[in-house]
Design brief:
Number of helices: 5
Oligomer: single chain
Helix content: 25-40%
CATH superfamily of the domain at 69-166 and 217-240: Type IV secretion system, VirB10/TraB/TrbI
Radius of gyration: 52 Å
CATH architecture of the domain at 69-166 and 217-240: Beta Barrel
Number of strands: 13
C-alpha cells in the first residue's frame, strides 16, 4: 500500500511539471536561421511605391507647351513690297524661269504680323521680249504664286510686275539729224550746190542706217531691286497667338 501511494505521488508530480513547462500555442518566436514560416511581415507605404527614376523626373520638368495658332486672312489688294533675289532681264530671262524675292516689310492685319519681313516669295517669268532693231521696245514681266512664312508654305496670286524699256525715238532722230548735217558739210566740200544736196541725202541715209543697225535699250533688274506687287486673291495664314 505504501508503495502504491509513492508511485501515484510521483506520477502526479511529473504531470504537473509537464503542464508548467508547455509554451502558449499563440506565442510567436523568432525562427532560427534556415527555417521557414507562414507569417508575412506587413509592407509599409514607403517601400510599396518605387521612387521615380531620373528619366521620369526629367520628363515631368520639361513638359513642352502646346503652341497656339490663330488664322488670319490677308485680303485681296494687299501690297507686297519685295526685294528681288534673282536677276531679271528682257534679253536673258525666259518664260517660266523661276523668280525669287523676299518681303522688305511685314504684312500686318489687325495688329497681327501675318507675314514677317524676310519671308520668301517665289514665282516665274511670264514675258521676256528683247529690244528689236527697227521697232518694238524691250519688256519683261513676272508674278508670284507662293510664299513661305512662319514655317508654312502658302499658295498666293499676285498681279504681274511688268517693266518696259524707255523709248529711243529722240535719240534716233538725233542720230539721223547728225548724219544729215555731216553729209551736207561733206557735199559743200565736194563742190557746193548740187553736191551739198547730194551729200545731205547721203548723210541722212547714213544716219538712218545707224538707227536700223542699233538695238534699243533692254530691261534689266538685278538682285536687290525693289519691286511691289499686290494680291489678286485673299490668302489665310496661321499666326502664333
Amino acid at each position: 500500500m505504501k508503495r502504491f501511494v509513492c508511485v501515484l505521488a510521483l506520477t502526479v508530480g511529473l504531470a504537473a511539471c509537464n503542464n508548467g513547462a508547455k509554451a502558449p500555442e499563440n506565442t510567436f518566436t523568432n525562427a532560427p536561421a534556415g527555417t521557414t514560416g507562414t507569417a508575412t511581415a506587413p509592407i509599409s507605404a514607403e517601400t510599396s511605391t518605387p521612387a521615380p527614376g531620373p528619366a521620369a523626373s526629367a520628363v515631368a520638368r520639361v513638359a513642352p507647351a502646346v503652341a497656339q495658332y490663330t488664322e488670319v486672312t490677308i485680303p485681296s489688294g494687299t501690297a507686297l513690297r519685295l526685294s528681288l533675289q534673282s536677276d531679271v532681264a528682257s534679253d536673258t530671262s525666259r518664260v517660266e524661269q523661276p523668280v525669287r524675292a523676299t518681303l522688305r516689310s511685314p504684312v500686318t492685319i489687325d495688329g497681327r504680323e501675318a507675314l514677317p519681313a524676310g519671308s520668301e516669295v517665289t514665282g516665274a517669268i511670264t514675258e521676256a521680249k528683247e529690244s528689236g532693231r527697227v521697232q518694238g521696245r524691250a519688256s519683261v514681266g513676272f508674278r508670284f504664286n507662293a510664299v513661305h512664312a512662319n514655317g508654312e508654305n502658302y499658295t498666293i496670286q499676285t498681279s504681274t510686275i511688268s517693266e518696259v524699256a524707255r523709248a529711243t525715238k529722240k535719240k534716233d532722230a538725233e542720230k539721223i539729224g547728225i548724219g544729215a548735217g555731216a553729209g551736207a558739210a561733206l557735199g559743200a566740200l565736194l563742190g557746193g550746190g548740187k553736191g551739198a544736196v547730194k551729200g545731205a541725202a547721203i548723210g541722212g541715209a547714213g544716219g538712218t542706217g545707224v538707227v536700223l543697225a542699233t538695238k534699243g535699250e533692254e530691261v534689266r533688274l538685278g538682285a536687290g531691286a525693289a519691286v511691289t506687287t499686290r494680291l489678286t486673291a485673299p490668302v489665310t495664314v496661321r499666326v502664333k497667338s
